[in-house]
């Protein structure tokens, strides 16, 4: 960045030109003219443009384990502000778009590896031939809402646009079952758990074998993600696959087909029921999945259009989101009075208030603690043990790659080399987090540049691979 002084009178004009406010621009200029600005930029690039980096203070020393000679030393005393900034790692796009983008990439590769295999992570490519589907399980109706049906006209008589804030809100708030909606979200994890139990039973029944025999001949693997609809109800998207008894490495039995899996999923979803007892003024109810159960075959299994890339991208997209579709808050709410300070849609506020009303009646469900999530208290992305790799393994691959780069740059020996054994001693203390307004603007710019460069490189690689495939 060019470091030029800007007169105070011109700050407002420059701020308008770059799309920011004068105070942010003034701070941006301060940061750009601070000694060590280039190193600060380098730190932020290494975080991927993190919007809320963790600040650390400390030092590290790498010694030869045999001789005790110092091979490398580092201290934050020479860093800008005496601090090292590291990525926050938050998965929520509303909190940190840069770290969420990295998380989404990990989820993408995790989900796709369970569809196509990944030899680098020890997942065989033959799982492409295993029966697998992309299933969507939804919530039932809690009352009519504004929508965009195939006819184009909502029940209210209007033709809503895609960005109409009325979409998903109750047609009649007085008759909408807000308690039922938040209780359903709160028990969504229980509904999924029971679904997986019934799914195995349905598969065994259709195969004509016992459940014990099923465990010895076939394994059900899945990777799923939760998505909030505009009405504030959670639904689940899942890749479900049938393997042999030892997981991805073993071929499934001959009776394991996509048609059998499809039928078993629909039957299992219809059987699930989670009873909720009465409490105070709230009657007992039975929670079930909605009638809309969608099951699609993934491309590569029988040549349909739903590709592995599309499925993995779809799942990764929602893995970084929470309940933002309803315009709720992305943090826990302390007191109900805090809602008066927030600009919330009336429908969303009623869902949050329902969590508060139900909290005393069902104290074990922690509804108020999860009111910002409209009662949902589960994980947004989960998978069965044998579906594919894990997020921890994927992060470790990235960490190992960066560590190898740094050892090469510093001339340090490979730790796997017996002749080059080293010992690293480190001491770190927490020193804060976040950015000033000007730093936030610069970090967002860096994050956009990094993302654009990587997407451009990925598209170029895909074009090159496509050309090679056409030539072959």
Query: Helicity level, as a percent range?
Result: 25-40%
Structural class comes to alpha+beta
The averaged pLDDT comes out at 86
SS field, number of helical segments: 12
Relative strand content: 15-25%
How far apart lie the N and C ends?
46 Å
Q: For the report, how would you describe the main beta sheet? A: 5 strands, antiparallel
Strand order of the largest sheet: 9-4-6-5-10
Rg, rounded, reads: 26 Å
Which oligomeric form is depicted?
single chain
* Element order: H for helix, E for strand: HHHEEEHEHHHEEHEEEHHEHEH
Q: What shape does the CA trace take?
A: globular
Strand-helix topology:
Blueprint: H1 8-18, H2 22-32, H3 37-46, E1 54-64, E2 70-75, E3 84-86, H4 97-116, E4 132-137, H5 178-186, H6 188-207, H7 211-217, E5 219-228, E6 234-243, H8 258-271, E7 274-276, E8 285-287, E9 293-297, H9 308-319, H10 346-359, E10 381-383, H11 391-410, E11 422-433, H12 437-471
Antiparallel strand pairs: 1-2, 1-3, 1-11, 4-6, 4-9, 5-6, 5-10, 7-8
Overview of this protein structure:
With 472 residues, the protein is an alpha+beta fold. It has a domain at 124-142 and 177-387. Helices cover 39% and strands 15% of the residues. The protein has helices at residues 8-18, 22-32, 37-46, 97-116, 178-186, 188-207, 211-217, 258-271, 308-319, 346-359, 391-410, 437-471; strands spanning 54-64, 70-75, 84-86, 132-137, 219-228, 234-243, 274-276, 285-287, 293-297, 381-383, 422-433. The strands form three sheets. Strands 9-4-6-5-10 form a five-stranded antiparallel sheet, with helices on both faces. Helix 1 (8-18) crosses helix 2 (22-32) and helix 5 (178-186) crosses helix 10. The model is unreliable at 1-11 and 300-304 (pLDDT under 50). This is Replication initiation protein.
């Amino acid at each position: 960045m060019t470091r030029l002084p800007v007169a105070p009178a011109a700050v407002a004009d420059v701020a308008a030109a770059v799309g920011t406010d004068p105070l942010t621009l003034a701070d941006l200029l301060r940061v750009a003219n601070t000694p060590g600005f280039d190193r600060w930029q380098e730190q932020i690039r290494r975080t991927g443009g993190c919007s809320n980096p963790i600040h650390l203070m400390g030092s590290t020393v790498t010694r030869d384990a045999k001789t005790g000679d110092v091979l490398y030393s580092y201290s934050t005393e020479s860093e800008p502000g005496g601090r090292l900034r590291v990525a926050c790692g938050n998965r929520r796009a509303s909190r940190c778009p840069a770290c969420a983008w990295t998380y989404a990439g990990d989820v993408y590769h995790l989900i796709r590896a369970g569809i196509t295999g990944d030899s680098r992570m020890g997942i065989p490519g033959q799982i492409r031939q295993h029966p697998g589907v992309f299933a969507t399980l939804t919530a039932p109706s809690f009352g009519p809402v504004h929508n965009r049906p195939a006819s184009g006209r909502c029940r209210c008589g209007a033709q809503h646009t895609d960005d109409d804030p009325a979409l998903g809100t109750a047609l009649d708030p007085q008759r909408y079952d807000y308690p039922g909606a938040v209780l359903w979200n709160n028990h969504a994890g229980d509904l999924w758990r029971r679904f997986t139990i019934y799914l195995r039973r349905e598969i065994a029944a259709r195969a004509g074998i016992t459940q014990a025999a099923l465990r010895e001949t076939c394994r059900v693997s899945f990777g799923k993600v939760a998505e909030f609809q505009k009405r504030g109800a959670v639904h689940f998207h899942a890749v479900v696959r049938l393997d042999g008894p030892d997981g991805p490495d073993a071929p499934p039995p001959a009776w394991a087909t996509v048609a059998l899996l499809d039928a078993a999923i629909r039957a299992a979803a219809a059987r699930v029921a989670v009873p909720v007892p009465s409490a105070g003024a709230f009657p007992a109810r039975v929670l079930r999945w909605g009638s809309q159960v969608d099951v699609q075959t993934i491309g590569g299994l029988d040549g349909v259009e739903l590709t592995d890339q599309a499925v993995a991208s779809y799942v990764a997209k929602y893995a970084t989101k929470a309940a933002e579709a309803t315009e709720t808050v992305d943090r826990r709410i302390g007191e109900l009075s805090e809602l008066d300070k927030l600009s919330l849609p009336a429908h969303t506020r009623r869902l949050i208030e329902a969590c508060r009303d139900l909290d005393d009646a069902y104290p074990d469900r922690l509804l108020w603690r999860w009111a910002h999530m409209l009662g949902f208290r589960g994980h947004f992305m989960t998978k069965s043990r044998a579906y594919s790799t894990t997020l921890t393994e994927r992060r470790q691959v990235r960490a190992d790659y960066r560590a190898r780069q740094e050892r090469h740059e510093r001339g340090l020996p490979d730790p796997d080399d017996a002749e080059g054994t080293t010992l690293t001693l480190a001491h770190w203390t927490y020193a804060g987090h976040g950015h000033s307004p000007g730093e936030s603007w610069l970090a967002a710019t860096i994050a956009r540049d990094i993302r654009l460069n990587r997407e451009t490189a990925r598209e170029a690689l895909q074009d090159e691979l496509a050309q090679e495939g056409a030539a072959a």
